[in-house]
Amino acid sequence: MSDWETDRLKEDLRLTIKELSKTYEELSLLYRLTEQFSGATVDELCGMLIDEIKKQLNVETIAVMFYDKSSDLLFTKKAIGRWNSELNITPQSEFLWKVLKKGKSSTICDVSTVSDLNRLGFKSVILSPLIGKKKTIGLIIVSDKKDGNEFFAGDVKLLNTISSFTAIFIENALLTEEIQEFYLGTIRSFVKALEARSLWTAGHTERVTHYALAIGRQLGLSEKELERLRICSLLHDVGKIAIPDSLLNKMDKLDEKEWEEVRRHPLIGAEILSGLSGFYEVIDCVRYHHEHFDGTGLLGLKGEEIPLLARVLAVADAFDAITYDRPYRMRRPKSFAIEEIKRYSGRQFDPQVVKAFLNWIESSDNIVVSNSEAGT
Ligand SMILES: [Fe+2]
Q1: Over the stretch 9-50, which tens digit does the pLDDT of each residue have?
Q2: Is there a single domain that holds both residue 52 and residue 162?
């Protein structure tokens, strides 16, 4: 073999190794992303997507835009850097049209031709479509490398790999959210019908949901746990369907026997929901929402034996019970409810949850029950 041929072989080998190592890096990246993305919500996915692009491309600005077919607008879902989060773009420019409608791979565009982007003062931009299984969901816009260099082909390829991989996860998460919205709507209608039986229970579920979510946020629960808490809160008193109206609306205090009957509603609720597969955490939360932290509740569960969401619900439920009218007594002021909850910390309530409740309540001057919080 001649020297020339040897050199050629060496060069081929070097290029092959370089290509293989790139492929290996890409596969490692996809493997890591699969682990991170599995089961994440749309918001979480967009956040992780931005973090990953920032890390890989070292850019100043990243925006994830979703396409809304009904308004024919691209709206900002999440963004960092020099970006106006209120920015909606009509995809009429040729560049955006190609990327979005034709699902054409990334384009380095002349920013001056896209007035919305030009106004933001970008020098160079890459647009990469988020293509789902059947349609383009939106696009990713990245702008200006921190080191001042122009983008090169490798950046475009890397961004495309990340965006096309993430788009499938986002599409699935969007579908899951749609299904969740549907069953939440069904649950809310059911709960409203239930509450309509008694003047005294009207609005209770919405308020408890609002308080529980506020406490949950103070505790640093994840979006997923908060979503579960929302469902638990909406369904916590579903067992009252089996309690006679005469007891729910009784103007006098309940006698011991009647009280025993009302106290069974968590068990009845759990029984009603027991046929729903995949709801076991919600069912447990419903079953144990009247357990006491010191073990003196209905079933005698103690401390962390009681699911955290049920412990959160217990405080939210008590706060609403004290601050709203009941058939047999008038509402008490917020300050009274706070003192009561403090007094029973470590007895009826989890001290950690009470602390989160106090943090929240001390930072909220006016407690306004938001319908959207309860999901209505
Ligand atoms: Fe209850």
Answers
A1: 777 777 777 776 666 677 777 777 777 787 788 988 999 999
A2: yes
**Mean pLDDT, rounded, of the chain:** 84
User: Cβ-count burial of 233 within 10 angstroms (0-12 exposed, 13-18 middle, 19+ buried)?
Assistant: buried
Catalytic residue, chosen from 18, 123, 224, 240, is 240
Helix axes 308-323, 280-287, angle to 10 degrees: 50
Largest pairwise CA distance in the chain:
106
How far apart are the CA of 196 and the centre of ligand 1, in A?
16
Q: What is the 222 CA–ligand 1 centroid distance (Å)?
A: 24
Q: Same structural domain for residues 162 and 244?
A: no
The verdict on whether 240 is a catalytic residue reads yes
- Based on the domain organization, do 346 and 316 belong to the same domain? yes
Structural domains in the chain (count): 2
Which of 79-93, 247-261, 274-288 shows the lowest mean pLDDT across its residues? 79-93
On whether the pTM is more than 0.85, the answer is no
Judgement on whether residues 291 and 166 belong to the same structural domain of the protein:
no
CA–centroid distance, 262 to ligand 1, in Å, is 9
The whole-number average pLDDT for the span 241-258 is 82
Q: What is the CATH number of the domain that holds 358?
A: 1.10.3210.10
Question: Of 142, 174, 206, which residue sits at a domain end?
Answer: 174
Q: Quick one: how far is CA 98 from the chain centroid?
A: 32
Q: If you search the block for the tokens 């420019």, which residue do you land on?
A: 93
Residue 73 belongs to what H/E stretch?
Answer: strand 73-80
CA 50 to chain centre: 17
Give the domain extent around 98: 39-174
Kindly report the CATH number assigned to the domain that includes residue 170: 3.30.450.40
Among 1-5, 276-280, 334-338, 368-372, top mean pLDDT goes to 334-338
pLDDT at position 4 over 60: yes
Q: Is residue 146 part of a domain?
A: yes
User: From the DSSP assignment, how many helices (H) and strands (E) are in the chain?
Assistant: 15, 6
